[in-house]
Write a structure and sequence with these properties.
By secondary structure, the protein is of the alpha+beta class. It has one domain: Class II aldolase/adducin N-terminal domain (L-fuculose-1-phosphate Aldolase). Strands 4-3-2-1-5-8-7-6 form an eight-stranded mixed sheet, with helices on both faces. It contains six helices and eight strands; from the N terminus they run αββββαβαβαββαα. The protein is globular. The structure holds zinc ion. One of its GO terms (molecular function) is metal ion binding. It comes from Streptomyces jeddahensis.
Length: 256
């Protein structure tokens, strides 16, 4: 469990560390004032924060995360909204919005960003991702300790770009973990993190979330099928998976 993600809200240092960067979202609007060309529409950031909080709460409600052990981010232009470190998601309000630029400089909020910021930023810098979901989902984390790649137990692997790899272990919150993750993510939209959890990305928060849920489900299927004594699950071939990928793209089948 990422210790940096734990702790009380008070320990996260609300209002006590560093200069106050920006006022909370709903206090920032100054109607009638011309904003700089590259400024983000305030309501776009506010909406994105609401969606981010809803997605973060969903990871807990659906059992993919226990406590504050996961994190979620969404990119709006050059700004990345992220869950703060150590605040239970049910307590998050618009006042708690935290955002950084792509270099990791905090541009909004007083709470500290998630300790897994390096993984989130590495994905935004090297892919077209608009949302990232990181969890410690139980079946996926279990699989991450057993194999270097999730066996092709189900064709939904195609939704993640192919067989899902396991990124080599490194200390949480480090650049080394982000580098290991990027290698495992090559041509994929999700991977497992050895002895740690999952990370997926997508064009929207819903898509990133769905990929995490599918990944956890596939890991559960493989563990379930592998658990029977004297039985070995059948696996799909790369060719069978390619067929699925083509069908998902709308090729290879006559369209009505
Ligand atoms: Zn973690």
């Amino acid at each position: 469990m990422a210790m940096g993600d734990m702790g009380s809200r008070g320990a996260a240092g609300a209002g006590s560390q560093g200069p106050k960067r920006e006022q909370a979202l709903e206090q920032r609007q100054e109607p009638g004032t011309g904003e700089p060309e590259d400024a983000l529409p305030r309501d776009a950031l506010g909406r994105a924060w609401e969606e981010l909080v809803a997605t973060a709460r969903r990871t807990v409600a659906d059992g993919l995360v226990v406590g504050t052990s996961g994190n979620v981010s969404v990119r709006v232009g050059g700004t990345v909204l992220v869950t703060p470190s150590g605040v239970p998601y049910e307590r998050l309000t618009a006042q708690d919005a935290v955002a950084v630029d792509l270099d990791g400089n905090q541009v909004l909020g007083d709470l500290a960003p998630t300790s897994e910021l390096p993984m989130h930023l590495a994905i935004y810098r090297s892919t077209d991702a608009r949302a990232v979901v990181h969890t410690h989902a139980v079946h996926a984390t279990a699989v991450s300790t057993l194999v270097p790649e999730l066996p092709l137990i189900h064709y939904m692997a195609a939704a993640l770009g192919g067989p899902v790899r396991v990124a080599r272990y490194a200390l949480y919150g480090t650049d080394e973990l982000a580098e290991n993750m990027l290698r495992a993510l090559a041509d994929r939209t999700g991977c497992l993190l050895q002895n740690h959890g999952t990370i997926t990305y997508g064009a929207t928060l819903d898509q990133a979330y769905d990929r995490t849920a599918q990944l956890e489900w596939m890991c559960r299927v493989w563990l379930t099928a592998s658990a029977l004594p004297d039985r070995t699950p059948t696996l799909l071939s790369r060719g069978q998976l390619r067929e699925v990928e083509e069908k998902l793209r709308g090729y290879g089948q006559p369209r009505s």
